[in-house]
Amino acid sequence: MLITILATVVVLGVLILIHELGHFWAAKAVDIEVSRFSIGFGPKIAGFKRGETEYVLAAIPLGGYVKMEGMVGEDAVAPLEGKTEPARPPSPRDFDAKPLWARFLVIIAGVTMNFLFAFVAFTFVARSEGAVDPIVGRLEPNSPAEAAGFQRGDVILELDGRRIRNWDEVQQYVSMRPETPMKVTVEREDASLELEATPGKVVVYNTLVRDSVDVGILGIEVWVDRAVRDLTLTESVAAGWHRTGSWTVEIFSFLKRVVTGQGSTKELGGPIVIGQLSGAAARQGLAAFLNFMAIISVNLAVLNLLPIPVLDGGHLVFLFAEGVRGGRPVSPQNRLRWTQVGMILVMGLMVLAFANDIMRLVGI
C-alpha cells in the first residue's frame, strides 16, 4: 500500500508540476504577471510567496494551474479557491494585453512539456531495455494469423499503414481492436507483402481494475531468439519519438471511439485507477515505472488539447478565432460564459471517472 501511495504521488505530482512549469516559464518569458502557481485545487495546505508569485500546495490533488493576471475566465475557477479577489486595473503585463503569438506560446507550453517528458522517458526506457523487433515466431493453430497467411519469420512493417518498430506496438495496436479487420504489411524473404487479418476477441478479467475487457488477439508469438537486441543512442531517440507519437495517436483514436459510440465511457479511468497502475508499475522497476509515467504524460497532454474552455485546447480555440477574425478577440462575456460551460463539462468528466473507479472497486 505504501508503495502505491508514494508512486501515485510521484506520478501525479511530477506530471502536473511539469505541465504547469511549462505555462509558468513561458509566461515569465513574455513578461506576463503570474500571481499564483498551484499544485492542486481548493484551499491552500502550504505555500510561500517569492516576488509577485505565490507558490501553493492545495487540498485537491487533481491538477494544478498557473494564475496569470488579466486572463478572461479566471473568475470561473475562483470559487474553487474558496475566495474572491477584488477587480484590478488593466496592466501591460496582463495575459490579454500580450500579442497573439505570445499568448499562443504560453498556452501550448504545458502540453509541450508533457510531450517532451514522455519523449525523454520513452527514450530512456528504449535505451535501457533494448528492443524486441516485430518478427513472427510460432503461430497458434487455427488462429486469425494463420487464416491471414502469416508465416514464421515474417517481419511486421505496418498495421493499417502505421509504421511498426517493435513487438510492443503490435500487441498494443491489435489488443485495442478486437474483431476489427486490419491490413498488415510484412517483409518476407526480402519482399513486401500485404495481408488482411481480423483479430479474434478474448474477454480478459483485469484484476487490477476489477473489470472484464475485450482484447484483440492474432495468435502469434514473437521469435525471441531473433527479435531481442540492444539499441544505439540514435535508435533509442528514434524509438522514444515514435512511441510518443504512437501513444498520442492511440489516445486520440480512443477518444474518437468514445465520442462516436464505438467505445464505452466505462473505459475512462480516474485517480484511483492511476494509483493502482502506478503502484503496479513501480513494483516492476524503474524502466516500467518511467514507461507508465510517459504514457500518463501523453494522456495528460492529449486531454488538455481537447477544445473545451478551461482546458488548454479551449484557450487555443479562442486564440484561433481571434486570428481568423483579424485580431478581434472573442468578447470577454462570451469567453467567460463558455469557460463556465467548460468548467461544468470538466467537473462532469471528473465525476464520471471517479464513478468508474468506484464501480471497479466494488466489482460492478
Give structural notes.
It is elongated, with a radius of gyration of 23 Å. The mean pLDDT is 84. A hairpin with a 2-residue loop joins strand 7 and strand 8 (191-197). It has 364 residues and is an alpha+beta fold. 50% of the residues lie in helices and 22% in strands. A four-stranded antiparallel beta sheet has the order 6-5-7-8. Strands 1-2 form a two-stranded antiparallel sheet. It has a two-stranded antiparallel sheet with strand order 3-12. Among the domains are: 2-26 and 94-125 and 300-362, no CATH class; 131-229, PDZ domain (Pdz3 Domain, Roll), CATH 2.30.42.10.
Please write out the topology.
Elements: H1 2-29, E1 34-50, E2 53-68, H2 74-77, H3 100-129, E3 131-132, E4 136-139, H4 144-148, E5 155-159, E6 162-163, H5 167-175, E7 182-188, E8 191-197, E9 200-206, E10 211-217, E11 220-222, H6 224-227, E12 228-229, H7 233-259, H8 271-283, H9 286-304, H10 312-324, H11 332-362
Task: State the main characteristics.
elongated; 50% helix; Pdz3 Domain; alpha+beta; two-stranded antiparallel sheet; 364 residues
Task: Kindly report the average pLDDT value.
Answer: 84
Shape: elongated
Helix tally?
A: 11
Number of strands: 12
Instruction: Compute the separation of the termini in Å.
Output: 23 Å
| Classification by helices and strands | alpha+beta
Major β-sheet, in short? 4 strands, antiparallel
Radius of gyration: 23 Å
**Order of strands across the main sheet:** 6-5-7-8
Poorly predicted residue ranges:
none
